[in-house]
Amino acid sequence: NHNQSFSRCLNSFVNKFDVTLITLFILPDIYREAHINTARAIAMGAIIKELL
């Protein structure tokens, strides 16, 4: 019984770890995309302001 609860605890830890890893892999991409889009929007705004 003790062994069972230990393995359950280990399972939940591994699941959390997986989620953390996935998040660490996916987030930078999203962050980079947002960064590029923001920079693009600012550049477009500056260009439009120059044209007007």
Q: Could you explain how this protein is built, in words?
A:
There is one protein chain. The protein has 1 helix and no strands. It is an all-alpha fold and 52 residues long. It has a domain at 24-52. It is rod-shaped. The relative contact order is 0.07.
Into which percent range does the helicity of residues fall? over 70%
Radius of gyration: 22 Å
How much of the sequence is in beta strands? under 5%
Poorly predicted residue ranges: none
Element string (H = helix, E = strand): H
User: So how many helices?
Assistant: 1
Tally of DSSP β-strands: 0
Instruction: Please state the average pLDDT score.
Output: 87
Derived from helix and strand composition plus strand pairing, the structural class reads mainly alpha
**Shape type:** rod-shaped
What kind of sheet is the major sheet?
none
Distance between the termini: 74 Å
Summarize the structure.
96% of the residues lie in helices and 0% in strands. It is an all-alpha fold and 52 residues long.
Key descriptive features of the protein:
single chain; 52 residues; mainly alpha
Note the topology.
Elements: H1 2-51
